[in-house]
What does this fold into?
Amino acid sequence: MSTPADGAAYWLRWQVFVCGALIAVPTALAAALLPRLRRSVAPLRATDLWLPCWPRLHPGCLLGYRAFALAAAAALLVRDIVPHGPRVFFFYTQWTFLLVTIYFAVATAISAHGCWSYSKKSLRKTDEYGDVENRDLSTSISGERKNDEKDKMASYYEQIANEKRAAFWGRCMQIIYQGSASNTFICTKFTAFKTLTVCCYVVLNLSNFFQVTDGMHSVNAVLLLIDTLLNNMPFPWYRIAFFVFWSCSYVTFQWVIHASGALSWWPYPFLDLASPGAPLWYLAMAVAHVPCFSAYWLVVKAKRAYFPRMFPQAYVRTS
It folds into this structure.
């Protein structure tokens, strides 16, 4: 079987043109979704980036979790780079894990700024929120008092609904969040049971957190799923465009380094264009982006649909 190092003959195969089309078409379709970003009905608010979806949970808790996730992701990434060097970034898994690490870095910084802003709020708003948090919500409270409490919760969230829209870094954070979340599903080669097993292992063996076998394939998903359960960020379907851009960028990167002769082997055999079945593999990977993104989108949708019913006094949907 020929390799990219064999020269022009490799790149003149019919598979190259078909696979190139399978990269170009999804990229064009993703680009067609970009105008939808400006027509968004529910624009991203600055408070969505750092305020938890649980009114009783102090924003500092989300900040603390994100700082922990950043440290964990960075340590795991460094642990992989030190013995193997930069060549680990020939693999899509490391690309994705780097993106997850960047997300938690940006999210930690924005959460820290949000907590600082939160501490500077007027005494009136702080007292009002504290009154909502500290009220007794036991089942013995009368229905009238519960309704009054719900009204105060709604009043508080009406206040933050008028907050300014997210700025440049906030929008970048949402883009990275949605791209990395979807990527964790396409990268993870474990079943749900396997992922649950890894979660249990991490909880029971916290001291060995960085010794989890194939940790990058599942730890990134675990870290992001926990963040999703805590944060209040929207997850619009049309942002699948950035997920597609990320994957197409990786494949383009592989083509470029192979065409330049910098690499003579393919990190993933199904990317090898010399195989007659390469177009089928490329098509399968392109199609796989839809269920992977949809799976995470459904997780967020289920959270927003069922949590208000399951935890009516503890969870408030704001967008």
Summary: The CA atoms of residues 110 and 312 lie 28 Å apart.
